[in-house]
Structure formats: structure tokens, C-alpha cells
Amino acid sequence: MSATLTPDVVAPTPAPGSTVPLIPPARRRGRLSFVLPPELEAREPPEARGLTRDAVRLMVARRGGEIVHTTFTLLPAYLEPGDLLVINTSATLPAAVAATGGDGAAVVVHLSTQLDADRWVVEVRRPDGHSTRRWPVGESPPRRLQLGPDASLTLLEPYGEARRLWTARLQLPQPLLTWLAVHGRPIRYGYVERPWPLSAYQNVYAMEPGSAEMPSAGRPFTADVIMRLVAKGIGVSPIVLHTGVASLEADEHPYPERLRVPSFTADRVNETHAAGRRVVAVGTTVVRALESAVGDDGMVRPLDGWTDVVITPERGVHAIDGLITGWHEPEASHLLMLEAVAGRELLDRSYEASLAQGYLWHEFGDLHLILS
Question: Whole-angstrom Cα distance, residue 10 to residue 8?
């Protein structure tokens, strides 16, 4: 891999008394830049390749240590009694909905983040075979979209600076989950060549519907892996963070998301650290949730609401000591979070090894365990 750096561009500090924007301005610094070969994009679930969920590959990377190539089913061997895994129990919605504009043109709506009873942040895309593409710069989708009998979506105003998201008013003849069960389908990007049922996009411990896309770092967990973790004395504790759409522009940071860090999870994180053991986040969503709940004293407290926290190497991480995550695309903003956890040297080595060893990307791909 040729890992080149992008220039550092820092957003200006708001003037005293100015209004801080809802979405923090994107701030670019040197990120990993590499070419992702198409053959490393996981195009189907591992089950379709004859594997169990937990048989995907796992890279274990430690600061100052050798990189280990193993399988996810052996995860318990790389954690110690007293360590704590924190998982995101948000369940995936069938958040992609077919729609038509006033001129009859077909579009696809991705329901991303629910703002209140009937207002959403949405992404509107045009169908393009099995894939979709964004609206061209300078064009706008129709303001009112028909989603089916007695169901419609009215686009209110652009959301953020990326020109791809809208706030919208959703009008449905039935409760949301009832209606989506009939009319929605999982969000699917072009590298996934055919539709898969919603069950393929659910983690085994998913409980509370609300995510536009699967918190995919948890997908390889099975009842067997969890049982062996607990039998070894490794704790498992939940948070909830409802993820929005992941198709971020090159300079776009994650936007505000709903979350809940319950008191018993906050207590377990603090107790684990007090005992000198590690807290390992399962996914970048868990990192964002716990880092949103940590105070200046380093203690994690219960939190129920919204987060706009963006994790960068300059900010650092304070609530976690490790991370289980998938493989992120070149120059993705999540790579800054990974660098905050791993450090740049280890991140470079990990991605070089992942490309050399043929690890698979995206929600149906392989995993990366980073330990401090």
C-alpha cells in the first residue's frame, strides 16, 4: 500500500458569541490514502460463501507488537479476564424506500436519522441498476415524493454542507415500524450485488430498532462467541447509538446521532478501568457514545440524548483501551478515530497488512482488533 497524506486544513475557530453549527465543519488532516482493489470488497455475507458469521478473518494489532492474523471465532483468546466489551444494541431498520417524484421519476429515499415524531434527515438517490448515485451538483430532487398509497415525504431544507442530506417531513398511514416492514428494505450500496433480507443486516444482540445501517463491527458475534467470552470472565455491556447513513463525502464528518449510555454500563466502564483492565469498544459507534459520556475527570456518566462528538487524534480517546472495527475506505473520517485509538504507526502497519493479506472490506467483510 502506498499511504500518502492529505494536506492539513483546520476549520477556523468560531468568533465569541457566534452560533456553533449543528454539524461541525469538516476538518481534514493527514489521512491514509490507498487504492482499495475491487476484489477486496465483500459482495455478500460470509454465510453465502459457506462460512459462519464468526468465521470471518480477524487481525489483532497491538501498539509495539506484532500483527496477528486469526479468525473472529478465536476473539476470546486475545482478551483477558476482567476486560469489558461494550456493544451497540441498536437494530437496523429497513431504511431504503422506493419513491416517485411529481414527474413520475423513480428515486430511492434513505431514512437516516429521526429528528422528532415526523421529521427525518434523509438522503435521496437515483436508482442506477443495482447501485445508486447522488444527485448531480446544481440539481435538486422534487420537493414532494410519493412513497406509496397515502405515504409521502416532503423535503424541507438541505441538511449540513454536503448537499446530499435533507430534513424532511414523513407522512405515513401506519406506525413507522409496521409500514417499513412492508415497504422498506435494507440500505444497499453498489458493491453488494443483490438484495439480502433484513436478517443479514442484524447483529445477534440487536434489540432496539433505529439504525439506518447495521453497526457492522458486531456482525461476527454469535451466541457461541459471547458464551465463551463470558465463560472466560470477559464482561459484555450495552449502549445504544442509532447510526445514520454511512455514505459520507470525502470531507464530511459524522453528523449528530441519538444515543443512550445507561448507568450500569457507565459504572462497569469506570470499574473496569479502576481495576486496571481494558474497555474494548465494538465498533466506532460505541467509541462515539462512550467518548460523548466521558467527563473532564475521565469518568463515564449516563447519557441520554444526542452527540455531535468527532473523534480525532488531537482530541484523543479517554473511555476505551481497544476497538473492534471493520476496514474503512481511503481517507474516510473514521480513520481519524482509528488513529486516535491505534496511533499512526500501527494504523499504517495494519492497513498495509490488510491489503497485502487480502482482508475483505465493508459490512460483510473482515474485522480489526486494535489493543493499546
Answer: 6
| Full domain range(s) for residue 320 | 38-92+198-371
Which pLDDT value is given to residue 200?
A: 98
Supply φ then ψ for residue 58, to 5 degrees. Answer: -135, 125
CA distance 46 to 32: 27
Distance (Å, whole) CA 315 – CA 116: 30
The DSSP call for residue 98 is E
Q: Are 243 and 90 in contact (CB under 8 A)?
A: yes
Mean pLDDT score of the chain, rounded to an integer? Answer: 87
pTM exceeding 0.85:
yes
CA 310/CA 332 separation, integer angstroms: 13
Helix (H) or strand (E) holding 165: strand 165-171
Could you tell me if 172 and 242 lie in one domain?
no
Both 341 and 265 in one domain: the answer is yes
The pLDDT value recorded for residue 329 is 85
